[in-house]
């Protein structure tokens, strides 16, 4: 039941369905703690986020999901300390690929959507399609996957997150850019 989306309401349904004696709040809290303990971000990516900001980029996180879980993961990985802003869909009922989601993420970074903005992500529809619809240039992190043949292609494809950072750093040589 939590494979696609996890919210407190999901845990209420699980608690009810299986007649569990533990409260929904306790289940949700344990889930957030456990999931956050499982996520990692490599030192090279964390260093890359610092490098982007040092090069003048505004770096943000635009993510779908529940605020509690997404912020717990960002804290656990060390990402939250290395970005200018975070927008989680639950905060304003605006989910990727909606343009409003990207606009709110840009606002959290102290900027607005513009033609010099970028979206970097792994999801062809939510990240790349949504980013393109919002007027952003796009970088798809393939992680060994092939691009879906029926989807409009991203501006760039890279094998992993550090390669996306390196590409953005190349684009910023001599220019100040904003990324969301």
Would you kindly provide a written description of the structure presented here, covering whatever features stand out?
This protein has 180 residues and is of the alpha/beta class. The chain has seven helices and five strands. It has helices at residues 8-17, 24-38, 43-54, 67-77, 99-108, 124-133, 161-171; strands spanning 60-63, 85-88, 118-121, 137-141, 156-158. Strand 3 (118-121), helix 6 (124-133) and strand 4 (137-141) form a beta-alpha-beta unit. Helix 2 runs parallel beside helix 4 and helix 3 runs parallel beside helix 7.
Protein topology:
Elements: H1 8-17, H2 24-38, H3 43-54, E1 60-63, H4 67-77, E2 85-88, H5 99-108, E3 118-121, H6 124-133, E4 137-141, E5 156-158, H7 161-171
Parallel strand pairs: 1-2, 3-4, 4-5
Helix pairs in contact: 1-2, 2-4, 3-7
Q: Structural class, please? A: alpha/beta
Write down the Rg: 17 Å
Distance between the termini: 30 Å
Q: Which word captures the global form?
A: globular
Helical proportion?
40-55%
Number of strands: 5
Number of helices: 7
The strand order across the widest sheet is 3-4-5
């Amino acid at each position: 039941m939590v494979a696609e989306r996890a919210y407190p309401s999901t845990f209420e349904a699980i608690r009810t369905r299986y007649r569990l004696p533990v409260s929904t709040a306790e289940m949700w809290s344990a889930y957030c703690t456990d999931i956050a303990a499982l996520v990692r971000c490599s030192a090279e990516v964390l260093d890359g986020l610092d490098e982007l900001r040092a090069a003048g980029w505004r770096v943000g996180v635009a993510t779908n999901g529940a605020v509690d879980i997404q912020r717990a993961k960002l804290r656990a990985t060390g990402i939250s300390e290395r970005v200018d802003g975070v927008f989680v869909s639950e905060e304003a009922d605006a989910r990727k690929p909606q343009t409003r989601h990207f606009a709110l993420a840009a606002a959290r970074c102290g900027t607005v959507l513009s033609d010099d903005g970028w979206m970097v992500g792994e999801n062809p529809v939510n990240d790349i399609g949504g980013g393109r619809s919002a007027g952003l240039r796009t970088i798809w992190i393939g992680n060994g996957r092939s691009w879906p043949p029926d989807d409009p292609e991203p501006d760039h494809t890279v094998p992993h997150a550090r390669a996306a950072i390196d590409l953005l750093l190349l684009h910023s040589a001599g220019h100040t850019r904003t990324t969301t």
